[in-house]
Amino acid sequence: MPGAQVHISRHPLILSKLTQLRLHDLPAKDFREGIKVIGSMLVYEASRGLPLIDVPNLQSPIAAFTGQAIPLRIGLSPILRAGTGFVDAALELFPDATVLHLGLFRDKVTLQAIEYYSKLPTEVTADLVFVLDPLIATGGTAIAALGMLTDWGLRQDQIKIVSVLGSRQGVRHVSEEFPDVEIFIGAIDDELTERGYISPGLGDAGDRLFNTHNK
């Protein structure tokens, strides 16, 4: 069973949109739009517990007031390439966020994550980072990304993963390796195929986003 740090959505809009994403014949345009919508709702949920500070001496059209602001530097870390499907939605919520691209792909034979790109500055530039990864299949890619971010200097509790769908095995693997990282996910499927695909899943998110899968 998922641990306390794993938050599985029960929101009707997310679950109904996820049903559409699973359809094998959904056009790439609609798949992209669905990923963006679910990503926006999940980032919204993952932001619920963020701290606030008072901002005094502001002026509305009617009177002075004290407002609130989030006092954190926010980072968005999409795992290339499928994670880019979340970026626009997350930037709409955090327009001043730093975007920290991580390039990882899964070897088709070993199913191990292989790093090929990192856009992490020399110094840590974020107090909280949202890792944007639509699928957690084996968990290897997410674990590799979390390793890169913690090596960079972040604590586990400064990282949140946002994902549309995961396998039970993969989510458990990530939680065991990084128990203090919160995971916000649309749904969890029970099965993982021998080739490392979530079942019933929704296929390869990168291929479906960019229309590069075999017809």
Q: How would you describe the overall organization of this protein?
A:
This protein is an alpha/beta fold and 215 residues long. The chain has a single domain, classed as Rossmann fold (3-Layer(aba) Sandwich), CATH 3.40.50. Helices cover 32% and strands 30% of the residues. It has six helices and 13 strands. The strands form three sheets. Strands 1, 4, 5, 6, 7, 8, 9, 10 and 11 form a nine-stranded mixed beta sheet that branches. β4, α3 (84-93) and β5 form a beta-alpha-beta unit. The longest helix is centred in the first third of the chain and has 19 residues, at 28-46. The radius of gyration is 18 Å and the shape is globular. The model has no long low-confidence stretch (mean pLDDT 91). This is uracil phosphoribosyltransferase. Its EC number is 2.4.2.9.
Give the secondary structure arrangement, pairings included.
Elements lengths: L5 E3 L3 H11 L5 H19 L6 E7 L4 E6 L4 E7 L3 H10 L4 E2 L2 E5 L6 E6 L9 E5 L2 E2 L3 H13 L6 E9 H10 L4 E8 L1 E2 L5 E2 L5 H6 L5
Quick summary:
Pathway: Pyrimidine metabolism; UMP biosynthesis via salvage pathway; UMP from uracil: step 1/1. The chain is an alpha/beta fold.
